[in-house]
């Protein structure tokens, strides 16, 4: 009786090489074919972000490159508008490093995100509902989808933030804070 182990080992070796070359081909395709064309897909990316946030979004510039072996997506002049068309969030520069686990999760996952100089509007409506960047976070119809996604990321760093607080319920003057830093890991 012959030993089947050598044939099994040979089949495993062939399978390992096939998987290696498939992954390498996918990586090279992403590096030299997909990422250089990211600006051509701007409308689809903006539509996806708007759908994720649930509010109108505008992006000034969009570039992609690599941070080590991870793809990096840089956005500049990002503006989010609330349902009334008011500017609720301004992000001058956002550097997102994508996580490879996005492919497994089937959802956008970030390895890290660095936001420089954001301007954020926080508003309490007359009925007491609380809005952060135009998204209702407290009240009768709170939307936690975006907050849940943000809190599920690995690393977020915010530098030099400006926050504007508008209290329509108390009819108080607008308050502002600046030069705020935040890091979540």
Oligomerization status of the protein chains: single chain
- Low-confidence regions: none
- Report how far the terminal alpha carbons are from each other: 58 Å
Q: What is the number of helical segments per DSSP (H or I, 4+ residues)?
A: 4
Q: If you compute it from the alpha carbons, what radius of gyration comes out, rounded to the nearest whole angstrom?
A: 22 Å
Query: Beta fraction of the residues?
Result: 35-45%
> How much is the average pLDDT?
86
Could you say how many structural domains there are in total?
1
Q: Which structural class do the helices and strands define?
A: alpha+beta
Order of helices and strands: HHEEEHEEEEHEE
So what's the overall shape?
elongated
Strand segment tally: 9
């Amino acid at each position: 009786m012959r030993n089947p182990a050598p044939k099994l080992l040979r089949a495993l070796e062939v399978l390992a090489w096939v998987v290696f070359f498939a992954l390498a081909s996918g990586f090279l395709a992403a590096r030299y074919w997909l990422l250089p064309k990211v600006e051509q897909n701007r409308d689809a990316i903006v539509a996806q972000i708007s759908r994720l946030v649930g509010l109108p979004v505008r992006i000034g510039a969009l570039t992609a490159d690599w941070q080590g072996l991870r793809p990096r997506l840089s956005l500049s002049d990002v503006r989010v508008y609330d349902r009334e068309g008011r500017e609720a969030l301004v992000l001058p520069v956002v550097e997102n490093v994508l996580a490879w686990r996005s492919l497994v999760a089937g959802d956008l996952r970030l390895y890290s995100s660095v936001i420089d100089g954001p301007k954020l509007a926080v508003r309490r409506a007359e009925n007491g509902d609380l809005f952060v960047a135009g998204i209702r976070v407290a009240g009768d119809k709170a939307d936690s989808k975006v907050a849940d996604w943000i809190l599920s990321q690995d690393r977020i760093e915010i530098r030099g933030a400006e926050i504007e607080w508008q209290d329509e319920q108390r009819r108080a003057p607008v308050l502002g804070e600046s030069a705020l830093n935040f890091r979540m890991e």
